[in-house]
Amino acid sequence: MSIDIPTLLKNNKNKIIQIRLRENKTISGILQNFDLFLNLTLADAEDISDTKVVKLGKTLLRGNNIITIVLPEE
């Protein structure tokens, strides 16, 4: 059985996810919303790429910059 990406994202709204972006950036935050182009809105987002965590707050990530999405384990 396969589940499509919009269904996976819908099932993980209001949960903490990790996003790997181009240029080796990793962002963690609470998934608030998304669209068909995989543009994501995260609340309480943090850049966890380096040893120092940088708080970003509410953030919009463009889908064409996303390499991977890590969903919480259930």
Kindly summarize this structure in a few lines.
This protein has 1 helix and 5 strands. By secondary structure, the protein is mainly beta.
Describe the 3D structure:
This protein has one helix at 5-11; strands spanning 16-21, 25-34, 40-47, 54-61, 66-70. By secondary structure, the protein is mainly beta. It has one domain (5-70): SH3 type barrels, CATH 2.30.30. A 5-stranded antiparallel sheet has the order 4-3-2-1-5. The radius of gyration is 12 Å and the shape is globular. The two termini are 17 Å apart.
The second-level CATH architecture is: Roll
SSE ordering: HEEEEE
Number of domains: 1
Reading off the top of the CATH hierarchy, the class is best stated as Mainly Beta
Separate helix tally: 1
Low-confidence stretches: none
Structural class: mainly beta
The rounded Rg comes to 12 Å
Shape: globular
- Report helical residue fraction: under 10%
Oligomer: single chain
Question: What's the end-to-end separation, in Å?
Answer: 17 Å
Query: What does the average pLDDT come to?
Result: 93
Strand line-up across the major sheet: 4-3-2-1-5
Strand content: over 45%
Number of strands: 5
In CATH, the topology is named SH3 type barrels
The biggest beta sheet reads:
5 strands, antiparallel
Descriptive key words:
9% helix, 1 helix, SH3 type barrels, 74 residues
Topology:
Elements: H1 5-11, E1 16-21, E2 25-34, E3 40-47, E4 54-61, E5 66-70
Antiparallel strand pairs: 1-2, 1-5, 2-3, 3-4
